[in-house]
Amino acid sequence: xxxxxxxxxxxxxxxxxxxxxxxxxxxxxxxxxxxxxxxxxxxxxxxxxxxxxxxxxxxxxxxxxxxxxxxxxxxxxxxxxxxxxxxxxxxxxxxxxxxxxxxxxxxxxxxxxxxxxxxxxxxxxxxxxxxxxxxxxxxxxxxxxxxxxxxxxxxxxxxxxxxxxxxxxxxxxxxxxxxxxxxxxxxxxxxxxxxxxxxxxxxxxxxxxxxxxxxxxxxxxxxxxxxxxxxxxxxxxxxxxxxxxxxxxxxxxxxxxxxxxxxxxxxxxxxxxxxxxxxxxxxxxxxxxxxxxxxxxxxxxxxxxxxxxxxxxxxxxxxxxxxxxxxxxxxxxxxxxxxxxxxxxxxxxxxxxxxxxxxxxxxxxxxxxxxxxxxxxxxxxxxxxxxxxxxxxxxxxxxxxxxxxxxxxxxxxxxxxxxxxxxxxxxxxxxxxxxxxxxxxxxxxxxxxxxxxxxxxxxxxxxxxxxxxxxxxxxxxxxxxxxxxxxxxxxxxxxxxxxxxxxxxxxxxxxxxxxxxxxxxxxxxxxxxxxxxxxxxxxxxxxxxxxxxxxxxxxxxxxxxxxxxxxxxxxxxxxxxxxxxxxxxxxxxxxxxxxxxxxxxxxxxxxxxxxxxxxxxxxxxxxxxxxxxxxxxxxxxxxxxxxxxxxxxxxxxxxxxxxxxxxxxxxxxxxxxxxxxxxxxxxxxxxxxxxxxxxxxxxxxxxxxxxxxxxxxxx
Amino acid sequence: xxxxxxxxxxxxxxxxxxxxxxxxxxxxxxxxxxxxxxxxxxxxxxxxxxxxxxxxxxxxxxxxxxxxxxxxxxxxxxxxxxxxxxxxxxxxxxxxxxxxxxxxxxxxxxx
Lengths: 715, 111
Known about the structure:
The structure holds 2 protein chains of 2 kinds.
Chain A: H1 8-16, H2 25-35, H3 40-61, H4 63-74, H5 76-87, H6 90-95, H7 104-130, H8 133-137, H9 143-166, H10 168-172, H11 181-186, H12 190-206, H13 208-211, H14 235-242, H15 245-270, H16 281-307, H17 322-333, H18 336-344, H19 349-368, H20 380-383, H21 402-419, H22 423-441, H23 451-500, H24 504-513, E1 553-556, E2 560-564, E3 596-608, E4 612-621, E5 629-636, E6 645-652, E7 668-675, E8 684-694, E9 705-714
Antiparallel strand pairs in A: 1-9, 2-3, 3-8, 4-7, 4-9, 5-6, 5-8
Helix pairs in contact in A: 1-3, 2-3, 4-12, 5-7, 7-9, 9-12, 15-16, 15-18, 16-17, 16-23, 17-19, 17-23, 18-19, 18-23, 19-22, 19-23, 21-22
Chain B: H1 9-21, H2 27-38, H3 44-56, E1 60-64, E2 77-81, H4 83-101, H5 104-110
Helix pairs in contact in B: 1-2
C-alpha cells in the first residue's frame, strides 16, 4: 500500500536540515517525482543526498573563511598577553571598587570589549578581502557579524575556560609559555590551542552567513538587448556629468594633500624612537606597525573631514566612494611614518622613501580616479607622419610635453637639495617628481568600471605595500636607535676626556648655549640608586635570645624577593636580577601562569627554636587589588645537609580582604604573628622564608607588599 | 578583465539539458534529462548545487514560477541560460571537437 504523501520525516529533514537558505523548488521537485510514481526509497535517498550535498557545498564555499579564522586565531595568545597587560593596569584597581558588589559587570564588559576588538579587526580584514565591498560599506554585511561575534565568543570562551580548569593538572600544569609576542604566535602547545579555539569558533560562526554570499550581477539573457542604463548606475559618471570637472579635480587634489599633511603631522608628533637602549626586534615591529596604523588613520581622518565638510563638493555625490579613496591613498600614506623617522635622523633615505610613497599614491589614484581625470593614452595623432619629403626630415615629430621639463627640473633640484643636506626639501621635490612621472605614465586602457574589482585591487595593493612599508619603518627605527646610541657613546667619551683635562668650567659654559643642553649629552638615562641599607652586625648566639632575655630581637628585612612560576621552586640560573622593591615595581606574568612571590631573610647565625616562642612579621602594604592574600612563614636550617624546614602556618593580610578593603593612597602597616611550637623536629634555624599566597585576583601580578622587619620573641 | 574558467563535465551536461528543455527547464525535468542521457540516477540535490554555482558565475538565471497542487503547493524554479553561458557552451564544444578530431586512432580503438 503506497501513501499519497511522501514520507513526512524525510520532508522535514529536507526542509530543516539542509545548510543555508533554500527555496521550496527542491521540495516541490521531489514531491512531483514521488507523485509521478517513484518509490519512498527514492524520496528518502534524494532527501538525504540533498541534505549531504548542501552541507558539503556550504563547507566547501567557506574554506577561505576557515583558513582565515585559523590564521587569525593563531595570533590570539599574543593578543591575550596584550590584554592581560591592560587588565592589570592599576587604574582598573582604582575604578572597579566604585562599582561595589557588581564590579564584575564592568570588568567582564571591558574584557569582552578588548577581545572583541581583536575579533572585529579580523572580521573587517576578512570581509575587506573577500566580500562585496559596496555592501560592506553600506553596512549590510558588516553589522551582523560584529554583533554576533561578541555574543558567541563569551559562552565559548567560558566553556573553554571551564574545560581548561577541569583538566589543568593533567594537561596544562607543566606548560611553559613563550615570553615574546612572536613566540606566543608560533607556540603550538595545547594550552595555546585551547586559547585559540574560542576565537576560531567565534570568527567562523560570525562570518558564516557573510562568507559565501555570491555576487550576482545583472546578466544578459539571450533575448535581452544590451542594458545601456547599466553603466549609468555608477555615481562616478553621473558626478562627472553633473559637476564642473575643474572643480572636482581641484577638490580631489586638496583632499589628497589634506590627508597627507595630517599623516605627516601625526607621524612627526608620535614617531618617537623606543626608549630602551637595545629594543627587541619584535618590539620594533610592533612599534612600526603602530606608527603606520596611526599615520594611515590620521591621513584617512584628515581627508574624511574635508570630504564630508558641509561645503564639500563630494558630500552629496562623489566621483568615487570615500572608502575606495582612503584605501588607495593609504598605500601612499603608509610610507609617511618611516619618512618622518628618517627625517628625524637627517637621513637621505627620507627622500627615497618619499619618492616610493609618491609612486604608490600616484599609481593608485590614477586608476581609481579614471572617471574624474581623463585617461592618458598615447596621442596617436601626434605621432602620425606629416606631409614631408621622405629622407629630408624625420617621419614624425615628437610631441612637446611641458611636464617632462618640470620632472627634469624637479629631479635636478631634488639632487641639489640632497647634496646640501636639505633632506626634507629633497624629499618633497623627489616625491613631486615621482608623482608626476607615474601619473603621466600610468595608462588605464581597459577600465571596466567594476567597483568591486577596484576595491579588491586597492586592498590588494595596500596589503602588498604594507609588508615592505613595515620593514622600512623597522629599518628606520633600528637606524634611529643605533644613531642615538652612537651619539650617546660619543658624547660620554667626550665628556670623560673633558673631565680628565679639567675643563669643567669651560664645558659648563658651553653646555648652556649648545644644542646638547644636558652637560654635553644628547639625552640622559638615570638608573634609580638602591636605597642605603642599614648595616646589621652579625648576629651571635648570645644576642639571639640568650637565656634571661625578655626583649624581642628585631631583624630588619634586607633579603631577596623571588618571583617564580610553577613548577619552579627556586629562581632559575638565568633569572634576571635588578634593584627594586615590590612596593613600586609592577611585576606581572605575561603568559597567564600565576606568579609565586617569596621573601627570603638569611640570618647571620642560627637561632635555637627552643628559645623562640613567636615570630612577628611586619609588612608594608600598598596593594590596591581587592582579594585575599595569605602570608605563610617557614623557618629553614640551611646549614644542615637536608635543609629541614618548619612550617609556622599562614595568615591572611587583613588590609587586602574584600570586607576590610579601602583604596590606599599611602602605605598600610600590618603585623602578623606566628607561634613557634616548643617541640619541633629541627633544633635551629638560620633562614626565614615568607611566602605570599595570593587569590585569583592577584595571581598574575606580584603583590605590592614589602616585608619591613621580623621580631623574634623569647620563650 | 573577466575571469576565464572552463566548464566542468557535469556543468556542461546541465547547460545542454537546459538548452534542450528550453522553457521547461526546472529541477525535475533537468535531472530526468540527465538520467536519460547518462543512464544512471542523479541526485536532485547535486543538480541544484551545480545550478547555483552556474548562477553565481552568471551563466544562468532563475526565477520562481507559480505553485501547483501537483507539487504539494510548491513553486517551480525555472532556469534560463544567459548569453555568457551560451558563449561558454559553444567555446567548450569547439575545444572538445578540436581535441577529439586530433585523436583519430582513439576513435578506432573505441569501436
